[in-house]
Amino acid sequence: MGDGTANEVGCTKLNLPGDIVRSGIHHLIDHCFGKEIDKEDADEAAILCPTNSATYFVNELILQRLKRNVEETRVYFSSTFLEKRREMGEEANNAERLHYPPEYLGALQSASLPPHRLELVPGANVMLIRNLRVSGGLCNSTRLRVKKLYANLIVCEILTGSHKEQTVSIFRISFSTDEFSLPGRLKRRHFPPKLCYAMIVNKSQGQTLKRVGLYLRTALWTHGQTYVAFSRVRSQDAVKAVVEEGPDKGRVNNNRGAALAGDNVFTQNPVYIEILRAVGLAPTNVQEEEEMDTDDT
To answer: Is Nucleotide-binding one of the keywords UniProt gives this record (predicted)?
Structure first.
């Protein structure tokens, strides 16, 4: 899988075993976390997605399940604004800001910024998206469990690493980016955790989990992602997948909808064979298989 030798439908596509394919996202959530979201076991499972937008969608579904069994919930909103430009006076800066109201700035999303709206409940699992205090175990990608929610403070328990089970307090911090076409840097002040029941594939690197769900609303898009996703668990029984129909994934016969278990289901498996060959890691039979595929066509 990691070197392309497991690809069965052309040189960049992988057939998925029928026993790992599920028909919808709710079946995937049941596999990973149970129908009622087992809080004690949830830190050993994850749903992996190719994009951040897919993780937001899945995490929202799981949040709705969590809210069934709790009375307390809290919604936090960011403070998002444009930095003042030093070369402009106060009046000019204020006039420029009128063209970019807070509603517009809050709707902007980026991998380097937390979402404008953050809804949490006690018991929810979250992940830090910035380093806060490395010596105290609060690093980017550290997983936490929410214990208490206050207006300006979130109390959490660390779930991973050498500081596991320690109680910590999380405050708002400032994020900034200049990746948008705006007349100045965008600043967003917000809490740095986000729900982590679903995460992008790259965030799961280095973790060993009991159960993994692979949600392919869009195809995996870069070298090694398929291998990373499937290798988070120790056995094939622990991984399930939902594959939405598309030109680069789904049923081989191109029926519409989510692919069902037992169908001939494939997904894109990007493998840069040339790079592996250059460093002597690609098996010699890969080239032979490609030549055979060419002859067949």
So the answer is: yes
8 A C-beta contact, residue 68 and residue 39: no
Residue 80 tokens read as: 């998002």
Exposure string of 72-110, with b = 16+ CB inside 10 Å and e = fewer, is eeeebebebbbebeeeeeeeebeebbeebeeeebbebee
At which residue do the structure tokens 């469990």 appear? 145
Q: Where are the beta strands (DSSP E) in the chain?
A: 13-16, 45-49, 74-77, 79-82, 117-120, 125-128, 143-149, 154-158, 167-170, 173-177, 186-190, 193-195, 198-200, 211-216, 239-243, 249-251, 265-268
63 three-class SS? helix
Structure tokens at 124: 């929810």
Q: For 137, left (φ over 0), alpha (ψ -120 to 50), or beta?
A: left
pLDDT over 80 at 138, yes or no: yes
Tokens of 185: 């840097």
Nearest to 241 by CA among 4, 15, 57, 24: 24
Give the C-alpha separation, 16 to 101, whole Å: 47
205 neighbors 57 (Cβ within 8 angstroms): no
CA–CA gap between residue 199 and residue 35 (Å, rounded): 19
Dihedral sign for Cα atoms in the order 118, 121, 124, 128 = positive
**Helix 52-67 with 25-33: angle, nearest 10 deg:** 70
Q: Rounded distance, CA 1 to CA 266, Å? A: 13
- Report how far residue 289's alpha carbon sits from residue 259's, in angstroms, rounded to the nearest whole number: 27
Half-sphere exposure of 43 (CA within 13 A, CB side): 19
Band (261; pLDDT cuts 50, 70, 90): very low
Angstrom CA distances, 122 to 72, 119, 147, stand at 7, 11, 5
> What is this structure's pTM?
0.79
